[in-house]
Amino acid sequence: MNDWHSWQSRVRYIARTAGVFILRVLMIALAVYVVVRIRSILVTMIVAGLFAYPAGWLVHLLCRLLPSRVPRKIVRPFITLAVFVLYGYLTYLSVRVLITPFQAEIRALVTNWPQYQQEIQQFVKDVQAWYKTLPPDVRRLIESQNVGGIVEMSRQWMSGLVASTATIVGHIVEIVLIPVLAFYFLTDSRNIKHEFVALVPRRWWRDTLWLMRQANLILENYVIGQLLLCIIAGVVVGIGLGLLGVKYTLVLAVLAGITRAIPIIGPILGGIPIVLLVVLQFPNNLMVAVHVLLFFTALHFIESKLILPILIGERVKLHPVTVILVLLIGAQFFGLMGMFLAPPVAAVIRVVLHRYWIAPQRTKRLTPRTEEAVRA
Known about the structure:
Layout: H1 2-37, H2 39-65, H3 72-132, H4 136-144, H5 147-170, H6 172-187, H7 189-198, H8 205-243, H9 249-259, H10 266-281, H11 286-312, H12 320-375
């Protein structure tokens, strides 16, 4: 009889455990499905939040400078609007100053592109001729690496990035909503946070507020740090290429600044076309291309070892392999925006796992040893 009850208890325990596991898997699958279905809305809200970070520090600074008797709740919307107008005016001036030389360089690049195309074809022929002079063992080793497949995969990936960028530009309504949402994020962030926390059970309020603070700190450090890195990379690359006598300096500087927003592989994506264009401009003087390559290598080293830790800090400290993996995952789901946001999201997940899983496990392992030491 006791064996029968014991067997029933085991069956109920196994059924209950399996049911809870299946329910959790279904909930995770449903959450992933919902995120994929509404990803355009999520991207719009995320971009609005990113747009609010650079303006947020100035809004907070101006609000703190106000006298204590001034009601900040009433004045904050006007300060936010003034900051948006200031940023818009500065952007307009920058575009107006840079648009003329930028258009001139684009026209020159388009005009000279047939010549560059012929030089590329000649370069490919020279490489093929050089490849035929290699020993058979070396050629078999190169062919075993599937270089052609890698090139084709890179071409398809870049085409996908261009297509996703065109899709983003096509969403006019979402683009118009971005500054509107950013304005509300800055003027009414406290109420938005309280309404979100109210949806969570009371026993989870403290953890939810902690998680929101950590995520906000990580995203703020990351966004502002990456923005400054993009500006620094664009300015330094423009000055460096100008001193080396490279054409299309402004276009290449803008390309270097934009691609720098993608961690780890961004400088590589921006550096490869620049080095190739330098090779085409100076086919008889490869030392210029070598100097450009050394310049990009030194710039990437200084950014990753000196500037990046200072601007972004330790909060987004992830291993390069982890960053590359999350970049690929982010690109698969959200394109360019996913690649930009993948590292901070992974950093938030790492913080959550450390707080709720790794730290408790360490505490459980250390507690018996501590008790034994006290008894001894």
